């Protein structure tokens, strides 16, 4: 009986509080602080304001609303009135519950700007990010990178000076080191060769199997009626 | 009977696999073969090779990433950084409309590009970032 009650409670909890497919907020506070700081420094160099605004709609009832930050501060949507020139990553994301038949989606995606030749989503796609990135496990990285690279794209368009690359002047803390060694470079570049090989090998196995069956059938037929291929 | 063309298939398969094993996936070699070598920098962390491209950083990085897909990437205001199994590549503005391409081994690359990749591609125990706003001296 207690087990039945526990199961019922678990089912009710699942129905009332279904798990959502994405974490909110998308960008953690520490990352938002760092991104806003980088944008503020870019604004100092370029006299162009930057920001990100992601409208999150969670149909399962989870936290939603506007997730934003800018060169004016983390958590602060860009006040356009205070900026002569600006570029802001804008997106709308709709999360559905895991029990829903419809899938998470992006309702809007673009760059709001008053620049004469603003950065485009096509340029972001060349850098490896598009609207589908906002639905991936690395959605935080997508928002950080798509927003963070806006000053570089503005500079490349000749609208502002570059934000200079600055290598560290002092050794990094000894404990800090790269982690999670990536997989083979060959595999990423030429996975299709391995796929082709596997396909060919599979075909060979099929052909060999068909050949063996053909030989066995021939022998069975030679033995006369009533014999079977085992 | 096993069809005669199956022996031809074996030959084709072996050729594809042998050719595939010989394909060059090294980002170092790709950059060396396609961009102008400028200089080599040696520091206590290792060796860094510097090349130049006439194309701006995002286009140069997209070309390199298209030819040699990276395991990870960082797009920042100051450049694009690509991570490979043993190499880090940084593509930054050269101040003349083109790009400076820096090819580092993993350890040196992490130190060299630390302000941009620290905490993303490895451990980070630098100063915690809190928003200080812009203004003079607001650098990292």
Keywords:
heterodimer; A: 230 residues; alpha+beta; 5-stranded mixed sheet; B: 6-stranded antiparallel sheet; 34% helix; 29% strand; disordered C terminus
Question: Care to describe what's here?
Answer:
The complex is a heterodimer of chains A (230) and B (140). With 230 residues, chain A is an alpha+beta fold. Chain A is 41% helix and 16% strand. Chain A is built from six helices and five strands. Chain A has helices at residues 2-16, 29-46, 121-126, 139-148, 150-156, 185-223, and strands at residues 49-58, 65-70, 73-74, 86-95, 105-113. Chain A has a five-stranded mixed beta sheet. The longest helix of chain A has 39 residues, at 185-223. Chain A starts with a helix and ends in a 7-residue tail after the last helix. Mean pLDDT of chain A is 85; it is low at 7-21. Chain B is an alpha+beta fold. Helices cover 34% and strands 29% of the residues of chain B. Chain B contains five helices and six strands; from the N terminus they run H-H-E-E-H-E-E-E-E-H-H. Chain B has helices at residues 5-21, 27-34, 57-67, 106-112, 114-117, and strands spanning 36-43, 46-53, 72-76, 79-83, 87-93, 99-105. A six-stranded antiparallel beta sheet of chain B has the order 1-2-6-5-4-3. Chain B is elongated and about 75 Å long. Chain B starts with a helix and ends in a 23-residue tail after the last helix. At the A-B interface, helix 2, strand 3, helix 4, helix 5 and helix 6 of A face helix 1, helix 3, strand 3, strand 4 and strand 5 of B.
